[in-house]
Description:
Blueprint: E1 9-13, H1 19-30, E2 33-37, H2 58-73, E3 77-88, E4 91-105, E5 110-119, E6 124-127, H3 130-138, E7 146-150, E8 153-158, H4 161-172, E9 180-184, H5 192-210, E10 225-228, E11 242-248, E12 255-258
Parallel strand pairs: 1-2, 1-3
Antiparallel strand pairs: 3-4, 4-5, 6-9, 7-8, 7-9, 10-11, 11-12
The structure holds zinc ion (ZN) (2 copies).
One zinc ion binds at residues 213, 215-216, 218, 249, 251-252, 254.
Amino acid sequence: MTPTRRGARAALLSRHRKGTVVAPILRRSLDIEVCETDAFDTDLLGTFTGEIERVLSPRECAVRKATLACALTGLDFGLGSEGTFGAGPLGSIIAWNTELLAWHEPRTGITVIGSAAGPSAARRVAVTSTEAACDLVARFPAGQAAIVRTSRGIRKGLVGPGAVRAALEDWFGAHLHESVTVEYDLRAQHCPERRERIADAARDLVRRLQCICPRCTRPDFSPDHIEPGLPCRDCGAPTGRILRRTARCGGCGHKAPFAVEDTSADPFHCENCNP
Ligand SMILES: [Zn+2]
Ligand SMILES: [Zn+2]
C-alpha cells in the first residue's frame, strides 16, 4: 500500500446503501474513508428485476460506477459494486451469486477488482394463494425482502408475511384468483446474503490493494495465474490440481511464483489411478 492510498478518501457510488458494508472494512484495513454518493441513479445501468436491461458486463459496470463516483465527487479514488445471479459451477438449479467491487484511480489509470462468489438461496416461486405466499416469505432469512409479481403489477421491498398479505389484499381482496410469483428482492439493502458476499469482495479488494509489485509498487500483485498439473502421489502423472500460482504485474510485467501448499495430488484426482 503506497502512502497515497492509505488514509485516502474514496467515493462509492451506490443507491442501495452498500457503504454500510464496505466502509468499515476499508477503514479498518487500509484507513480509507469511504464517502457514499447517490448522485447518479445506478439503476440506469441495469436492474435485477429486468426493467432496465444490462448492456455492460458486470466488470465494466463496476468500473463504470467507480469512474462515475470519482467524477461526481472530485475524489481521486472511486469504488463501484456490481452483483450478478446466474448458473454457477453447481448448475442451473442452484443460483450462483458473484459480487465485484471495483477500485479505480483516474489519475494513474489503475483498476483493481475484488470479487467473491458462492451459492445463493435466492429463488422465484409461483403460488396460487395468499397463505402460500405468506408461508413462503415466513421462511425467508431474517431481513430478506420479497418481490411479488402479479397481473396487477409488481411490489418490491416487502419484509415479512404481513407486508406480502397487505400487498396481495390490496390488489385482489380476500381471495387470490391467479398465480403470482414471490421471489427474493436482490437489492443489497434488502438482501442480507448479498451484503455478506459484498463484504467478502471488499476483503478481497483490500488484500489486492495490499499486494504491491516489488518492482514498481503497483497494487494487485496477486497470484491469479494458475497452472494445473500437480503430479499424482502414486504414479506421478500430471493431474488437474494446481501445480503453480504466479503473480504478474499489470504495470511493469514483473512475475513471481507463489508457493502452493501441496507437492503431490491425491490419486483421487488422477486420470490413471481413478479413471
Ligand atoms: Zn510492477
Ligand atoms: Zn496416479
